[in-house]
Amino acid sequence: MLYRKKILLAIVELFGNEISATDFQKILFLFSEKQTDRKYDFVPYKYGCFSFQAMADKNSLIKEGYLANTRNWKTNIEHANFIHTIEETDRKILSKLKLQFGNLSTDELIRQVYLNYPYFAINSEIVSKHLNEKEIEIVNRFKPTITTEGIFTIGYEGRSLENYLNTLIQQNVKILCDVRKNPLSRKYGFAKKTLQNACESVNIKYIHLPELGIVSEKRKNLSTQMDYDNLFVDYEKEILPNQQKEIRLIHSLIKTYGRVALTCYEALPKQCHRTRVANAVHLLDSKIPIIHL
């Protein structure tokens, strides 16, 4: 079993073998904030801090029989002693959290997280229920406010879904254009439907533009930068000239929404065709800057 899943089970066990979905996310977040090598990242969601990976792991643990198939987090195995399957350092962190927060109501727990980590309340639909006006003003300071036009490029290689989304949120990106030919991924969170749902849950619109992608056959056997450069020279000659409709669409999205990102897999901009797409938009309107994330 993955170590991070053991952490999930240990939390449920320590908090009485059943804990509400909202409380669980908050406790896991507080635990992750204390870890040196954190296993889960979070995004500012409609109820505050939220980990998509943790939810995916919950579904996996349900299938494996460790958790009950309920909205709450509930262990399905009696006397398992999950707490002793995690490292001593992590056990100590959890024990302290249990002492500090174990007797708080859900509302009290939410308020504590919002007060101490206001960034994660920026998208909350319930913030006014838990914070007063002055406290909400502090939360609002963490909301991205920059609105100048820009075209961003971002790859998901080496990133968690939450880290990826936070990068977009903090840059106030409004539209994510997926320029993969086939938006499939073995990495959690980056297959088309999952990525679209995650983006829209944090108020980023997702658009797939497969016409701008490169077929997988042409991406095989790329080992040097020269291989990539040759591929992209061919891409600019053979594909981009026939996709001016999509280039103009991206330009119009920037004019409407201000800040638009192009995404594909590769971490390095020079090893992904999204950079060539961004260059094509920039040629159309040189006032639009290109920012690589």
TrEMBL record:
Superkingdom of this protein's organism: Bacteria
Protein name per UniProt: DUF488 domain-containing protein
Listed PANTHER family: BLR5642 PROTEIN (PTHR39337)
InterPro entries: DUF488
Species whose genome carries this gene: Mariniphaga sediminis
Pfam family, one: DUF488
